[in-house]
Amino acid sequence: MRLFGSQNQNTWSNHLPLKLANIVGAIFVMGGNVYTVISPLDVYYTGKETYFTPASWSFFIWPLIHMLLLGTCVYQFSGRGKEIILERIGWRLPLLDFLNAMYIYSWTMQEYRYALVFLIFAVSVVTQIYQEVKATALRNFCDEVFLHLPFSLYHGWTVGLIFLSAFEAFGVDALTEPADAWTKAFVFASFVLLEMVDFAYAYSAVEGDLPGCLAISWYFFAVVVRQTPDRSAFVHWSALGFAIFSLCWIMRCVIGLELKFRGRNNRLGIGEETSRLLGGH
């Protein structure tokens, strides 16, 4: 009995290095994002302009994600949080923080090819975390707010940033060069792929993945605002068409949530294949 009591007393210190790494990493990355906003470098307005660049205000989704991740760091001290965050996700969360910080640093220094490399690795890690969260059979309210919501937003937003980083690394400067046929083709193809990811979110489960769909729609509409018809009518109207179409997947998720709450376990046609792709059930 004494040994059992000792183990209970040491529960808080279990996984202590990982707990501290999660907290320090979350604070550090949030500080990095704050620095990009208040920095005299003014990176949101002086970086490379591409034909896939969204409006500057769209990047303020990062503070929301990081605030939710601070809640995740608090949630890790609960029994349920320990099971998912510490035992299933493990050291991948601090690794994600490190990769995100390196992406922010490279992007701030306008080293766009390095930023693309770090972002690709970050997306691969957040995809693994996203799948772990989606794979949990039981999800309560705290799971939804501190696990599913932040990592769905994180995943959806960074998928959009992958395309942006590729254009920053290899695309033309929209301020000095007009959009030629190849640029328009690559932009349109990127829109199609992003819309396909949006579709996969919507059919990843009975209820879909509303935060992921919202993150991609947010990106589409931000591109519509930034890429005016004066700059490229083709890019502007293409982005607007895909943005409006993305609202269909949001509606699909809303309907799916209603069906789930009503206890209807039908999959609305498609879901098994995309569910395995994104880790849904």
Give a brief description.
With 281 residues, the chain is an all-alpha fold. Helices cover 73% and strands 0% of the residues.
Give an overview in words:
Keywords: Membrane, Transmembrane, Transmembrane helix. The chain crosses the membrane at residues 20-38, 58-77, 112-130, 151-170, 182-203, 234-257. This protein is mainly α and 281 residues long. It has two domains: 15-38 and 54-170, no CATH class; 178-267. It is built from twelve helices and no strands. α4 crosses α8 (141-170) and α7 (112-134) runs antiparallel to α8 (141-170). The longest helix has 30 residues, at 141-170. The radius of gyration is 20 Å and the shape is globular. The relative contact order is 0.11. The model is unreliable at 1-10 and 264-268 (pLDDT under 50).
